[in-house]
Structures are given as structure tokens and as C-alpha cells.
Design goal:
By secondary structure, the protein is of the alpha+beta class. It is built from 35 helices and 20 strands. The longest helix is centred in the middle third of the chain and has 31 residues, at 343-373. The radius of gyration is 34 Å and the shape is globular. The chain starts with 5 loop residues before the first strand and ends with a helix.
Amino acid sequence: MVNMVNKVKVKGVVYGLGRGLTPTRNNMTTTTIRTRAASLSSSSSSSRSRSRARCTRCRSALEARRSCQSSASSASSSSANTPPAGLRFPLAPRKQRRTRTTRTRVAEEVVGPLADAWSVGTNGLPSQFAGIETQLFQASLLPELLYLWFLSRPEAKTPPLANVGSRMLLLFVFATIPAGIIAKAQFGDVLANVDVLHGTSESLLTFSNLVVALGFARALSLPAGKGHLEENSQGFPFKGIAKFVGVTAGVCGVGALAAATALSGSLPLDTEPANALSLPTWAVHVSSVAEWSLAMGLVWKYADHSGNKAWKGLTLAMGLTLFNAYTPCTWHSFYNSPAIGALVPMQALLTLTGSTARAFAAYRICEEGKRLDAGESSAQPSQEAQTEFDEEAFLLKLALVAGCGAFAVKYGELFAPSFFMEPNYVKALALMALPTAATTALVANGGSEGGKPKLSMADVKSFGVAGTVSYVITELAFWAVAFPLAFSWYRVAEGSWLDLSNAADKAKLLGAGTVFINGVRLLVPVRLAAALALAPSVEKGLKGMGVDLKKEQEEEQEAPAAPGSKNFEGEWADSPEVDNEKTFSFGQLAKNLAGFQKNRDPEGPPLGGPSGLEDLSSRLPDCPKTRWDSEDVDIKAVQKQYREEDIPDVLTIDAKETIQGDEEEWLRSNKDDIKEKLLKHGAILIKGMETSKSGAGFRRVYEALDLDVCLDPIHTSGLRKFAIEQDGIYEEVNKPGLRQHYIGLHNESTTNRTAAFGAFVCFMPATEGGGDFFVADGKRILRDMDTEVLQELYDKKIRISVSNLDFFKPIIQDRGLFGEFDKDVLVPRAKDDLAKAIGDTVAPKFDMDLEMVWGADGANEGYRLQAIELPETPINRHPVTKEPLWFCNMHNHSRYLRDNRPCTVPEVGMTETFFGDLSAIPEHILEEVDRASRENIIPTPMKPGDVLLVDNYRMLHGRDIFQGDRLHAVSWFTWPEEANIKEAVSNTSEGNSLNKMINKYVDTLK
């Protein structure tokens, strides 16, 4: 129900009364307003069962009745106007409510609270402490100002952006004053109950915390001791904050839609009180807490980074402020219940103590800074290598945490209504103290020793087999206890055992499961510690049983891979089938976006660090546009010509035998000859070079050949991330989740863009076998393919689907709510709007000329949205030689072929091929394409330092499955005349961020 506001105008100021006004509005008194919240609390237990069974209109009537009853008991002046219990009244006539007497009386009653914007009226304390929260809030301003002054001192060496963020807190402090006045004057309620004002004013705190965290994160990415310099501040992140707000709003919107549709019928949305926080306001609170927690960890690390250890004291002082931040969140979780109203003055007290503690910590930072500047302290900045900081990914993660966290809190608490509808201080203090203590302990424990946790799984593994066995025993014991306890807790909380056949119990299980999983995660250090404590005893027991632990470990390290599991080509390995639909989960997505994955050290062996040459990070030109010349190809004549021609094989150059002296100089002297032979042979394998055994050397190799490096044609697809961005070197597809994925033959091209040439390099072959790189000559494939099949493909053209989006079905599917109108109007309109929205906003980021099509492959009951490239011919003439070539990625992208070979691509990334009119391609044609392609595959096993140059228009390439780790890389090259073009959508900060985000997700697939 919309909360009506009775607005009247007095002396040019608009005032109003009431959320949920009583029927007798004309005679409403101040007592009625002040006792409304108390009356709601006193009858909350009985109202809960009634409100769940009634619609919103009924609940509003109940609230009106309770307000009237409360007025009768607390103010005799209004007793005559109180209706009998259970009676419902219509609204008073508009004219009657606008009499002069009413306006005068309202003005007298409302003006009083304006002097106390921070007060909540009844604060749960004895009457002599009424309004004490306002005094405490006011008293906290002085230490807050001292804190800001000390931080701004030059000896503190605070990162400039963090200084700005800290000062932004004053905007929040002073914004709450007019917001509180407006809430009381315009709405007749406290600020916490007026959601739009509450969320807007609190958002200033979110921005302040965000800028503080961002300031310290930027500082940590700079050389040690340089994070405070003004020239390194990089400016205020206006665009970043705008994107943060946009992503958070988008997640909240999707969450609200999901709650209102997919969870309808099981989620008790109608049980929320009128003052429940909205999803965006919860996102503001969650974001503020997350940002402050993150800032604590960053400040702790900054102590080592700057050499001023006193910064760690500020981290501990920030713990008090974090406790303070959880206080209003807890109060809001209990719907601002007066039963725990003392949380408000407690928050005010914590604000004062937290500000004081931070002011003292900042003073110590300044004093320590003076000693450091005077040389009186031996502390030195950390000598650890600086870490790369991806600011956009940082903000994206925070936005997702804010939006998803808000959804979990707002709707999760509805699954445990008995808990949150019966507030008490024990529950409230537990919700405040436990996360604060856990965060502070985690920061203090994980921030030492270069930021590495003191306790990890690596410590358990250090005991070898004994450690593994002890961990298994510990986990079995833990879960054997945890599950019975969890079910018993549910029995105590709900009064009955969990019944999974009951829809309501299933809904409650979601909320309880969230709490359970998070509790289990908090106990991970305890479980690791138990495993470590048990490991010596397990080791002793295993030795007593005669187990040779050393031998077992050696066998585990030296055991060869199972026969037939390394390669697909030539062996048709008996690899287990992989259900690609199970390789994607939102859990993996969340884990990736939170950064919980281990990545190879970008400067570790065998890759090495950047070359030190000109930094190409922001200077790489676009991958060139695809040069199409496919009209009027006489397929029969071309095939006849090629069958009579002696087509050259891949050229191999043995560097150790051919190159005498300096390798780079030899390449520089022979570059023109090499380029000429590359056009003739299609590919050149240079074996045994020493220069190209590192990333820096590989760049010197391609520069010696005078090749113009450019972006990957599918830079934003996430299949390849940069190995060394400064040198324009991408990792080849080495990702753990794609080890057992066979990459079919393809040119590195899309309908829109195609690299002119490529250079593949091996830094480390697959450690456990397989992973052979292979190529196939497009000239030979065209020669050998069945003429009729080739002609049909050429005439009908090809379209390639590059992504399957299946997650819209729960939102837009036909539920039959409005009969045929759903099927004929609503669902088609929703599909059209979604396809257009994604086609206009998301698809262009991939720079692939995509069309969004529903149900092209008939899967998911027509609710699969597919991103499909525009029609293209499978034959194209070479831009230089003008020879017709098989120029098509069907062999790699056909779903039929992928389903008949190892494939671990998640469903969202599965591809498919169609004729140009989107009709299905018959299996016999796909099988012929597979035959002609695989018969012309040329394996090119590579060792460290080997470089394979390819003509990307003529030569298709692929990769076999492998075991273990593998590190191959590639650089792509443009035409000399296009070496300075930077116009592509993918060649922007958004394109780079998309590349990194998708790569991080794919990295989490195991």
C-alpha cells in the first residue's frame, strides 16, 4: 500500500503527517505519532500470523486499528476519536482535512521535533536519557575533525585519494541533518523509516568508504613508499563510481524481479512491515560495511608498504567503527523495532569512541612519520614487488557484493521470520560482535608476513600423505557433527523437523542454508588447525602400519598419465565424457568475481617479466577488419587446379643449424625472405631458438621480423588473457578448465575482424603430456572436400552462434497468468525487448557483428537467447595471393562435432553452426567437413623457445587435449598500413575490463 501523507502548508513550509495514518487523521496528536512504533511492537507477535494470511490492504487496516488502540491507551484526549476494535473507516473528506484549525494544530505539533534531527524519540533507555543519542553524535564531530586533520598532515603520508574519501564523510554527517528534519516534518517519522531519504543520505557514506578503500588500493599498486605522492593519485574516479552505481542498481533490479517472479508462492514478501528497507537501501548498507572491511585490510597492508607500522593501529581502531556500522544494519534487520531501541544510542556511543580511537591512531601515525623522516626509526617500506591493480574489476566486485549481499539480507531474513520478528539484545549483539571480531581477526592474522595467511591448506599438504589423511578425518568428523547440529537447530527454531516435501520448508532451507554455509566457512581455520594438530599422530600411525610414505609420494609424483588420456588426434583417446552443462555455476562466477582463484605469477618462470621496451599496454592497434573477397569462386575449377599443384608443406627452420651468431640479428637480416616464404608455405616453424624462451625475448623476435603487433580478434571474448600486456603477448588457451577441451581447426577471425599473421611460442610444454599444437592448410582442405558439400555451404553461407544465454527463462516464461495474452503478447514482447537491449548494449562490446536470436537451435523450450554472427561464406580469397581458401571456423564451432570429441566449455560458451538462413546443417555435411579438416592436420609439437609463424588467412590452427600445466603464448599482427588504427570497441578500457573479467571466470573452471 502507498503510505499516504497529509500535507499542509504553514508559513511557506510544507509539513506532513504519517506513514499509515489512522482513520481519524484530523484529530491526530503528537502522542499518537510517538506511540505508533511502540504499539506496532507490542502487538507484533499476534499480528504476524494474521498479516501473513492477508493482503497488503488488510495489513494497512490492521496497522490503522493498532494505531488507534495505542492512542486510546496513551492519550485520553484522543479516546473519543478511537474506533471500536476491528472496525474499518473510510478516509476523511479532503475538504475537512484542510481546515484552518487543522493546519494550525499540525504546525504546533510538528515544529518541535525539527530541533532534533538525529533523535528517534523512544530510544529504549530511561526517560532521563531521552535524546542522548543526539548529544553523542554531536560530541563525535570534534574527534572526527581531529582524525581528518592528523591524516592530512604530510608526515602521515596518507594516500591522496584516501584523504579525499575520509573528508567526504563530513558530507554524510551533515546530510543527515536536513534529511532527518525532512523525515520528521514531511513524513512525521524518523529518518530510518523513510526509505528514500534514508538510502540517499546513507549513500554518501558508501561513496566515502569506497573512495577510502580505492585510495589505499591504488597506493599499494605503486612502488613501496610512493603511495602518498600527489603525482601518483590518478585523479578522482568519477567514471568508476558511476559504473559501480550502475552495476549495483542492475543487480538490485534483477534481484527484485527474481524475488517477485521465480520465488513467488514460497517467499513471504507480504509479511514485511511498512518500514522494511528497500533493496537499494540494503545495498547501500551492505556496500558500506564491505568497503570499510576491505579498507581495514588495505590499511594494514599499507603499514608494511609505507614503512609506518602505526597504520596497523588505525586498522584496529577502524574495528570499533566497523562494530558501529553493524549496529544500524542489525536494527534494520529487526525492522527498527523499539524493543531494541537502545541500539541507536549505542551506535552514537560507538561513533564517539570510534572517532576518538581513530583520531588517536592518526596522531600516532603522524608521530611515527616524524621519527621516520628524522631517521630515528629503523622501520623501512616493504621490498615486495608491487602488484597490478585492476580498478574496474575492483569496483565490479564491490558492486556485485553490494547487490547480492542486499538480496541475501532482505529476502534471506524472511525465511527465518521467528528470529527477526522477535527481537532481543542477545541476538542483536551477536549479529554485531561476531562479524566484527571475525573481520578484525582475519585482517590482523592475514595481514602479516607479506599479506599471506598464517594458516592455509599448504601447511596441511606439507605433511604429505599424512596431512591429506588427517584433513579427510577432520572433515568427516566435522560434517558428522555439523549436519545433526544444523538439523537440530532447525527443529528448535521452527518447532518441527525439516520436511523437503513441503514448499514452505524448502523456502526456509534457502535462508538457513545461507547462514549455515557462511558459518562453516568461518570455521575453515579451525578445521585446518585441527588437521595440522592431528597430522603427526596420523603420520606415526601410518608408519606403524608399514606404509612407506616417501615411496607413496614419489610414485604419486612420477606416475604417468593413463594411456590414451593425453591426445585426441590420432589416438581417439578414451577420455571420460564431460557434461558441459555442469561446468558452469553461479557459485563459480561469484568465486571468480570475488578474486578467489590462484593465478600463475606473471613474472615467474618460465615466462619472465616484461621486456622493458616501449610499453604497449595502451598502444596496441586494433585487429584489422576482415578482408572479404568471396564472390564468383568456381569451386570445381579451383579444386582441379589445386589437385594438380604441388602445395608446399609447413617449412621448418632449425635455429641451431641455420643461425650462426646472434639470433635477433639473423632474423632482422632475413625478415623479408621469411615473410615471402610464409606466404608460400602458410606456416614456418623455427625450432631451437634461445632468445624466445622468455616473454621479453619473444617480443624481440617478432620486432626483429618487423611484424606489427595488434589486439586479438576476439579480445573481449575472454578466451585469451594477456601473458605480458606491456609486450602485446597473449596466453594461448592453457586454462585448467580447458585442459580436456579439444580446440578444433579455425582461423583467428570473426565476420568482423581477422589478424593478418600470428606467432605462437612455447615457454613450457604440457607437463604430463598432450597439448600438441597443430595446423591445417586451408588450401588443402578446399582441395579435398567433397565438391557438392562445398558448393552447398558456399551457396547457403554459414552463421556461427558464439554464446547461449539460458537464464532468462525463469523471468519471462509463459506462466499462464493471463491466459493467451501471456503467450501471444507478453512473452513475445519480453523476448523482443531483451534481445534488443542486449543487442544494443552488450553485444557491441564483443566487436563481432552479432545478432541476438531466440531459440535458433530449439533448445530450452525456445527461451535460449543466442548471439549469432552474420552470414559469411566458407571460402575467401587471400588478401595478398588472391588464392581461394577454406576460410571457416565450422570445424571448431559445430555443436555436433564438439559433442563427439572432448569438450569442457560451459553451456554459456557453447557454439553452434547454421546455414545462412539459420536452418540446421545436416550431419553428413558436418562429418565431411570434419573428415577433410582432420586429414590435413599437421601436428607441430613444440619445445621451449620454438616459434610457429602462421599466415592467418591461409592456415587454420588448433590444439589437442593435455594433462598438467602448459604455457604457450601468441601475438597477433596487423597489416603495415593499419598499424596505427585504434577505433574498435574492444580497444577501450571497457573492452579490456571485459577481457579480464571473463578470463577470471574461465580460470576458475577446473
